[in-house]
Write a structure and sequence with these properties.
The structure holds 2 protein chains of 2 kinds. By secondary structure, chain A is mainly β. The two termini of chain B are 50 Å apart. Chain B has helices spanning 3-14, 49-52, 61-65, 68-76, 154-157, 167-170, 181-187, 200-206, 226-241, 261-272, 282-294, 369-393, 405-414, 443-461; strands at 43-47, 111-114, 124-127, 146-148, 192-196, 248-252, 278-280, 305-308, 311-314, 317-320, 327-328, 366-367, 400-403, 417-419, 422-424. The chains are: A mainly beta, B alpha/beta.
Chain lengths: 925, 479
């Protein structure tokens, strides 16, 4: 509480500093000029011209002309900055006598000279960055050979991507990947893009459109020292185009096709429309609006491999009466029927439904946003931003969820100067009609109506009777015949009855009888930063802080919240960074430290120390040590979800205590071993009570600890160089040590106390089904480590040809320590990208090709564990510019060779996607 | 979340404070304990087995200290409750009247579950050694507050000199030759009493397999007739109410004893272990039919196959049992039942005596359908008498709270009652309410009974006596 009010005081101080001095009247000057490409003298449209260290500025118009009126400081002179993507930035000093200033800009070939902000939260060139950083600029965004920029991120070194569905992809770096990636932060214009109820970003289905995206910066690895909790595996900052810098109209129409081979479904069309309009009024006010809508047929997940854990491998398959198909749901409901020889039990599962009959594969993505920016002073710009998104897609978590009409809103107010920002925003999600495909199948199967004998009890009874020959006309001893008899009256996909029951259950929000999610969680956040470097001359000094509050509202369906008692979680943090250059500016040292406190956990400090040494020009050696941490997600803290077979319980004491599962439980594996041993004893003629007493030693008490934040310590060394002005090389090595990794632990809690007053009542509880199974969230004991190498080289050939090659090596060093937890490293050991392109074969024609090879790797997640086979994909695009119409025609193919592959085990098979797009841009060059 | 709180929450974000936070579901703070319009300064209990703390077929030190009136008194202690004193019969094993032979100086104690000795035999309840003789209570008789006497019928509780007939009373009677148990209880001068009498008026008959007189009678295995019960109950209640001028009390009614494991466990176990119905080949079936016809049985129905039932001796003759209506008792020597080896571990050893197959199960081990219906009818009659007796005392304000133990036992039998993560039920041993004798509560069960009495007392007298936590008290000790 005390530190909070300190932050408050500091914030008000900050306002005073910001506006001090802006009241003094000074001489103003108006400068006009024309901006051209220094090489071919063509006019450049949309070049940013602004006063250095101020906000005030303008852009060049369709003829390349600009006009800017600004106030000179007391010195009587100032600097104008001319900045344009793909060209070198130029600074020109002006004074009261300057009225006309024409400028020619030179193209830059090497993106490494571009500036990034994310690495140190102040602008610096990529080369000088003290930590590893990747960037995708506006031109690369435009030229990506994939459906959107987001898929294009997979070509970066150190970046991994998961595909839950066409609409839902997530990025990760440096291992511990997952489909709901709570360890990787994704931000748009400084706003955390996470869905508050989930704690991770829903890919880019509800995000930013390509037309409005200026750049993406991605830091692989921990970045908590500057970005706070959850910047654990990395962070991605997406920056949209300011209406001041990018005025005008732009439109993109895209049409494409996937499922071209017809394997999963008929070839399906894809449409996307994007529109952006921005306007500036008198260099003082500006607004923009964005609209984007996409519609496609999703990739199908239809792996029917039998994964029933209790059936021996050689007995699995379509003829296994206890079959559990990976992407078949409903067949997880299984029981032992006494129909084997001599009354022995046979494992029989219910007949399931294919995923495609249960989920909505009609991907939709709507993005709608608007911003109003106002320059309240020469160094203060106020912006109001509202973003709205809605989407339908499939998300793969513990189950495959049909995310249907999910909506997401963000509203932000921000004040920005060249040395500071202060922002507050709110995120509001609504799960819409989203539902869980597995519960849908279970509850459809278990629904008893008068004319359908489909409840589990009835079904298994009918199966037993049919198999044993009690039903005339049914062949006894035949599993297929017994199943066909028991399935009589089953809802069949494609019938109106099926659809009616499906939509009813999908719309019911109690998982014991329905499948719907009901979540309207919110996130409120505030953040501020001030760069004191210009005020403090001795060192570079940066100070910042943030506060955020989650307001979870699942109406009791996911969390134990009730009307009038929403779950709220607050977190706050503050950081400072000091930097100084030594040895004639050849060595730069920065140190950062951050303090964070979350409501349920103790406060903690996160340090970072980094050095960049440049002994000779264009050679940069960097080294850093930092720690990252992650607050357990809202679900890991607060979930309370009884899903029938098991209850998911959040890891904080207030949630878990009432279940006694943390204190009074056996490990699931020991209960399974016990059950097998007792069953075998009884089958061999041993008395049941005797068997329990003899085997009770197999039960292992679990003693699960309540959850706490997880930590990573990361060492990173790297080297960047530009050789002969044409070869850019970046290589780095990192070594990560993880402490207290958050893991899931499955336990079985007997009804009676273990070591309670009733002696061995607990083992007998287990034997008599008097127990409850729980999935708990806790931390892994001890530390584990991983390391990796990322190497990238870009060779800039004559005539604008460019060849890039990158290689990423990732290795988890403690695979044997993953006992009783479902938390895989989920990252290929080797990954290679080859990129060949030419943006300007002729002034009108450009192309690029990206080849990606991924090594085989294991995927371990709550949905399933299995191998993701190695695959190679080729993405390619060709663009043709039609300057008369300010239009670009692009023909592209993601996965040109239609090489069907999966990204995650249990996920959809991804094939080729071919598209053609037409982009109109008022600022066309 | 109400709008007001929401605004406060939002304001707290803007003000960077932490005014808004989630309240974890917690047990509400209990309201202050209160005696309401009752006075618990001296709590006296009168009754039979359960009141005395009889469990596991014996009276022993631990079970007496955790009898349900004792647990109620512990809860009343914070309400100016006085000292509660039971006439403790000492010893960890106590005195087991069923298995002891006092005339030979053989004393055994309570039943305890013991581990099976061979892999094919089951966990069994065995009486423990050493037991103790039910010697006279050596404490101060005038301090006693618990007057529970195992095996005492309501008529006997009013019988002067009952101490000479029942050693459990004799050991603490104020006068072995002339005092009555109810009189002694009254003379203790309780401001509040708990009375649960009359169970044995039915149990004595039922546990003997209906061997006594169902119509009425005073023998140990006779079932008291309804009229006698009504008169006796009213006078016992009147006497207890005269303890002090303002004495109030709680009275339990009579449970349907056929719900108890003593009557249900054997059938359930035979059915689940598939010992009934049992299999016969056609030759044996015809042989048995012939044999029983010779003995005068009407239409014996043994057939080839797996649907045969044991034969039982009833008052109306021999017949085959129906396990839903005819209850085999826990007293049945199950090693005589059926055919095959007595010890499953020793197939060539002594063989079973063929009870139920070659000879009918004796009447004393079966409560047959007719007897069950007699028991149910008498239970209903007793409970009607109890209700009317109580009602007449409550015409101007509640003086006597009626605790419906009959309905309560049915709840315990069917759904059970959940405490924490455990569901307590009537089944033995894992239900943990009933001890190994199949009738009387374990200490945990006593806590459950105590809570039932406390709930009704609180509701009837506007009191707030705290409930007992059964999860901290033992049930059946599983070895």
């Amino acid at each position: 509480m005390k530190s909070i009010s300190k932050i408050g005081k500091w914030m008000s101080l900050f306002f005073v500093i910001t506006f001090a001095g802006s009241a003094v009247a000074q001489q103003s000057v108006t400068i006009n000029g024309k901006i051209t490409d220094g090489e071919n003298k063509e006019t450049l449209v949309g070049v940013n011209i602004y006063q250095k260290d101020k906000i005030i500025g303008t852009t060049s118009d369709a003829q390349g002309n600009y006009s800017l009126t600004l106030t000179l400081p007391e010195s009587g002179k100032t600097t104008l900055v001319f900045k344009y993507i793909g060209f070198g930035t130029i600074e020109k000093e002006i004074n009261a006598a300057t009225t006309n200033l024409d400028v020619g800009l030179e193209r830059v070939r090497i993106e490494a000279r571009e500036a990034v902000i994310s690495a140190s939260r102040v602008s610096e060139s990529i080369l000088e960055s003290p930590v590893s950083i990747e960037k995708m600029n506006a031109i690369e965004i435009k030229n990506t050979p994939t459906l959107s920029f987001y898929e294009g991120l997979a070509s970066m070194k150190a970046v991994d991507m998961t595909t839950s569905s066409l609409g839902f992809k997530t990025v990760n770096s440096r291992g511990f990947n997952s489909t709901g990636n709570v360890k990787f932060v994704q931000r748009i214009d400084g706003m955390d893009n996470q869905a508050p109820g989930l704690n991770f970003s829903v890919g880019n289905i509800i995000g930013i459109s390509d037309l409005d995206l200026e750049s993406v910066e991605l830091i692989p690895g921990a970045a908590s020292a500057l970005y706070g909790p959850n910047a654990f595996n990395g962070i991605m900052n997406m920056t949209s185009k300011s209406p001041f810098k990018y005025p005008g109209l732009s439109v993109q129409l895209k049409s494409g096709m996937n499922h071209v081979d017809g394997t999963d479904t008929d070839p399906s069309p894809l449409f996307e429309t994007m529109l952006r309009y921005a306007k500036v009024f008198n260099n003082k006010a500006a607004f923009k609006v964005n609209f984007s809508y996409m519609r496609a047929e999703d990739w199908y997940a239809n792996d029917t491999t039998d994964v029933d854990l209790l059936t021996p491998l050689d007995k699995r398959g379509a003829n296994n009466p206890g079959r559990d198909g990976l992407n078949i749901y409903g067949d997880e409901v299984v029981t032992n029927l006494p129909i084997g020889p001599g009354g022995t039990s046979v494992r029989v599962s219910r007949t399931g439904y294919l995923e495609k009959d249960l989920v909505d594969y009609g991907v939709k993505s709507l993005k709608l946003d608007g911003a109003f920016n106002y320059r309240v002073a020469s160094n203060a710009e106020l912006s109001l931003v509202s973003r709205f998104g809605a989407g339908t897609t499939v998300y793969q978590g513990a189950n495959r969820y049909s995310i249907s009409d999910f909506t997401f809103q963000q509203h932000k107010i921000e004040l920005t100067g060249s040395q500071y920002f202060l922002r507050a925003y709110a995120t509001i999600e609504n799960s819409g009609d989203s539902y869980d495909s597995r519960f849908l199948a279970w509850n459809m199967n278990n629904r008893l109506t008068e004319d359908r004998r489909t409840s589990n009890a009835e079904w298994f009874n009918n199966y037993t009777m049919a198999y044993l020959g009690a039903i005339s006309g049914v062949t006894p001893g035949n599993h297929a015949a017994a199943r066909a008899y028991a399935d009589k009256g089953r809802l069949l996909p494609g019938t109106p009855e099926f659809d009616a029951v499906k939509s009813e259950i999908a719309g019911t929000d109690d998982f014991t009888k329905g499948a719907k999610f009901n979540d309207q969680s919110k996130l409120y956040a505030g953040e501020g930063q001030y760069d004191f470097s210009s005020k403090v001359k001795v060192v570079d000094l940066l100070v910042g802080g943030n506060y955020r509050m989650f307001d979870l509202n699942s109406n009791g369906t996911i969390f134990p919240d009730t009307a009038g008692n929403d779950i709220t979680i607050y977190e706050y943090g503050a950081y400072t960074q000091i930097g100084k250059k030594f040895m004639e500016d050849k060595l730069r040292l920065t140190g950062s430290i951050r303090y964070d406190k979350a409501e349920q956990f103790d406060g903690q400090f996160t340090p970072r120390i980094a050095a960049v040494y440049s002994p000779i020009k264009d050679n940069f050696i960097r080294a850093s040590y930092q720690t990252g941490f992650r607050m357990p997600s809202t679900q890991e803290q607060f979930i309370f979800l009884d899903i029938g077979a098991i209850t998911l319980v959040g890891g904080i004491k207030g949630v878990g205590a009432s279940t006694l599962a943390y204190e009074n439980s056996y490990t699931l594996s020991s209960v399974q071993a016990f059950a097998v041993a007792v069953g075998a004893d009884v089958a061999a003629g041993v008395d049941a009570t005797q068997a329990v007493i003899n085997r009770k030693g197999l039960l292992k008490r679990s003693n699960v600890a309540y959850i706490k934040p997880e930590q990573v310590q990361s060492f990173d060394i790297g080297y960047k160089t530009i050789l002969k002005s044409s070869l850019y090389i970046d290589i780095n090595y990192h070594y990560n040590t993880y402490t207290d990794l958050v893991v899931l632990q499955r336990v079985v809690r007997p009804d009676n106390l273990i070591d309670g007053p009733d002696g061995n009542a607990a083992p007998f509880d287990i034997a008599q089904n008097k127990f409850k199974a729980f999935q708990l969230y806790t931390n892994l004991d001890g530390t584990v480590a991983s390391h990796g190498i990322a190497f990238g080289a870009n060779y800039y050939l004559p005539k604008n040809y460019q060849v890039g090659l990158n290689y990423t090596y990732s290795k988890f060093l403690d695979e044997d320590k993953e006992d009783n937890s479902i938390n895989g490293f989920n990252t290929p050991e080797h990954k290679v990208n080859l990129l060949i392109g030419n943006k300007r074969i002729t002034p009108k024609l450009g192309f690029n090709v990206a080849v990606r090879w991924i090594d085989e790797y294991n995927w371990e997640a709550s949905f399933g564990e299995g191998v993701v086979p190695s695959y190679t994909t080729v993405d390619a695009q060709m663009s043709y510019k039609i300057p008369e119409y300010k239009t670009t025609l692009k023909v592209g193919a993601a996965n040109l060779l239609n090489n069907r592959h999966i990204d995650i085990y249990g996920g959809p098979t991804v094939g080729g996607l071919y598209f053609v797009s037409l982009s109109f841009d008022e600022l066309f060059n | 979340m109400t709008t007001k709180i929401k605004i406060a929450c939002l304001a707290s974000v803007l003000a960077l404070t932490t005014a808004c936070s989630y309240e974890f579901p917690t047990q509400p703070e209990p309201a202050a304990a209160s005696a309401g319009n009752a006075n618990f300064s001296k709590h006296v209990a009168i009754g039979d087995f359960a009141v005395a703390g009889y469990a596991d077929g014996a009276l022993y030190e631990e079970s007496q200290n955790t009898s349900f009136p004792a647990l109620m008194s512990q809860s009343m202690a914070s309400l100016n409750g006085g000292v509660y004193v039971s006439p403790i019969l000492p010893g960890a094993n106590g005195f087991n009247p069923t298995f002891s032979v006092p005339s030979l100086g053989i004393f055994v104690g309570r039943l305890k579950l013991v581990l099976p000795t061979c892999t094919k035999s089951s966990m069994t309840a065995r009486p423990q050694l050493p037991g103790v003789p039910p010697g006279p209570y050596t404490g101060d008789l005038t301090k006693l507050t618990n007057f529970g006497v195992p095996g005492m019928k309501i008529t006997e509780s009013l019988f002067p000199g009952y101490g000479s007939l029942n050693a459990f009373y004799g050991r603490f009677a104020s006068s072995v030759s002339s005092s009555t148990a109810v009189g002694d209880a009254r003379n203790a001068g309780g401001t509040f009493f708990t009375m649960w009498l009359g169970n044995h008026d039915i149990l004595g008959y039922a546990t003997a397999g209906g061997a006594g007189n169902a119509g009425g009678g005073t023998g140990p295995t006779d079932m008291t007739d309804g009229a006698t019960f009504g008169v006796a109950f009213t006078s016992a209640l009147d006497i207890m109410l005269s303890s002090t001028s303002g004495t109030k009390g709680a009275v339990g009614n009579i449970p349907d004893v056929t719900d108890m494991p003593y009557f249900t466990a054997v059938n359930a176990s035979l059915l689940s272990s598939k010992k009934i119905p049992f299999a016969l080949d056609s030759a044996t079936a015809s042989q048995l039919n012939f044999l029983y016809t010779l003995q005068g049985m009407n239409n014996p129905n043994f057939i080839a196959g797996t649907s045969n039932m044991f034969t039982i001796q009833t008052a109306a003759g021999v017949r085959q049992m129906n396990p839903s209506n005819d209850l085999l008792l826990l007293s049945l020597p199950t090693d005589s039942l059926g055919t095959g080896p007595v010890d499953p571990c020793n197939p060539t050893g002594p063989q079973r005596a063929g009870w139920g197959v070659t000879k009918p199960i004796a009447n004393q081990y079966v409560l047959d359908q007719v007897e069950v219906s007699d028991v149910l009818a008498r239970t209903a009659a007793f409970n009607a008498s109890i209700k009317s007796a109580v009602d007449t005392k409550n015409t101007s304000g509640v003086r006597v709270a009626l605790v419906d133990m009959n309905t309560f036992m049915k709840t315990l039998k069917t759904t059970g009652i959940k405490y924490g993560t455990t569901t307590l039920k009537l089944d033995v041993p894992f239900g943990n309410v009933i001890s190994l004798d199949g009738i009387n509560p374990t200490p945990k069960g006593s806590a459950v009974y105590a809570n039932k009495f406390i709930d009704v007392i609180n509701a009837s007298f506007g009191a707030n006596v705290y409930r007992v936590d059964p999860t901290t008290i033992r049930g059946n000790e599983i070895p």
